[in-house]
Design brief:
The chain has a single domain, classed as TIM Barrel (Alpha-Beta Barrel), CATH 3.20.20.210. The chain is 41% helix and 11% strand. The protein has helices spanning 3-11, 34-48, 88-103, 116-125, 129-135, 137-160, 179-185, 187-196, and strands spanning 52-55, 108-114, 165-170, 205-208, 225-228. A five-stranded parallel beta sheet has the order 1-2-3-4-5. Strand 1 (52-55), helix 3 (88-103) and strand 2 form a beta-alpha-beta unit. Helix 2 packs across helix 3 (88-103), helix 4 crosses helix 6 and helix 6 packs parallel to helix 8.
Length: 238
C-alpha cells in the first residue's frame, strides 16, 4: 500500500498494512521565514518516512497593534478580525503551501490549529484566563467569538492551500477548566469551527490535550480521528 492508501484505509475503518505512522516535533522555527520552516518539515518527513505529516504551527496569534499584554477584561475589546496574510498566521499558510505542493500525491498534510480558548490563553491573556473565566465571563465570550472566527477563516484558508485537514488541539482537561467552564468557554466555539469545515477535508484530527480529560464530551466532535497522549495522560490504549 502507498502512504495515501494506508491513511485512507485507516480513516475508512479498514485494515492498513502496516498501520499508518506519523510523529511530530516542535522545531523552534517560529521566528524563521516560511521557506526554512517548510524545509525542516520536509526533511523530517523524509528522515522518518512518515505516512502523513502534521504541520507544526508555532507562529504566534498576533496581539492588537501597539499592545503588549491584555490583562483586564476591558482590554479584550481590542481584539478584532484579522487580515490573515498580514499576520504571523499568513507565514504559516505560506509554509503549508510549500509543503503541500511538495507532498501532493504522496502524503496528506494536516495543519495544526489550537482552539480559541487555548489560542487566547497561550498568546494573549496567559495567566489572566482563570480570573477572566471567573469574574468576566461575558467579556471573555465576546473575545472568544472573535478569535474563533479568525481561526475558522484560517482553517478554511489552510484547506484552500492544500491541507487535508486540521489537527485541532483542545485542552479539555480538569487542570484547565471545570466541566462547566468547558461547556461554556470551549465546546460551543470548537463545534462552530468544526461545523464550518464540514464536508471539506479528509483528515481532521481532534487532539485531546492533557491529563484528566473531559473525553466523553469530545466524542461527538465531527472529526475523522482522535489523538491523545496515552502514555503520559491516558486513557490507555490497552
Amino acid at each position: 500500500m502507498t502512504k495515501l492508501e494506508r491513511v485512507r484505509a485507516a480513516v475508512a475503518g479498514g485494515r492498513a498494512a502496516p498501520p499508518p505512522f506519523s510523529v511530530w516535533y516542535h522545531f523552534g522555527l517560529q521566528h524563521a521565514p516560511a521557506e526554512r520552516a517548510a524545509q525542516a518539515h520536509l526533511e523530517f518527513f523524509e528522515a522518518y518516512d512518515l505516512d502523513w505529516l502534521k504541520l507544526m504551527n508555532d507562529y504566534s496569534y498576533p496581539m492588537p497593534p501597539g499592545v503588549e499584554t491584555l490583562r483586564a477584561a476591558r482590554d479584550l475589546a481590542q481584539l478584532t478580525p484579522l487580515d490573515l496574510p498580514r499576520t504571523p498566521l499568513g507565514e504559516q499558510l505560506r509554509v503549508l503551501e510549500l509543503v503541500a505542493r511538495e507532498l501532493r500525491g504522496r502524503a496528506l498534510v494536516v495543519d495544526t490549529v489550537f482552539n480559541a480558548w487555548n489560542t487566547l490563553r497561550r498568546n494573549v491573556v496567559k495567566e489572566a484566563m482563570g480570573p477572566l473565566m471567573q469574574d468576566h465571563p461575558a467579556d471573555l465570550e465576546a473575545a472568544l467569538a472573535i478569535v474563533n472566527e479568525n481561526l475558522t477563516r484560517y482553517a478554511q484558508a489552510a484547506l484552500e492551500r492544500g491541507a487535508a485537514g486540521i489537527f485541532f488541539s483542545v485542552p479539555a482537561t480538569e487542570e484547565s477548566v471545570t466541566r462547566e467552564q468547558f461547556e461554556r468557554f470551549m465546546r460551543p466555539y470548537d463545534l462552530a469551527l468544526l461545523e464550518a469545515l464540514r464536508g471539506r477535508g479528509e483528515l481532521h484530527v481532534l487532539h485531546a490535550h492533557g491529563d484528566r480529560l473531559h473525553l466523553d464530551r469530545l466524542l461527538d466532535y465531527p472529526v475523522h480521528a482522535i489523538s491523545w497522549a496515552d502514555r503520559d495522560a491516558g486513557p490507555s490504549l490497552a
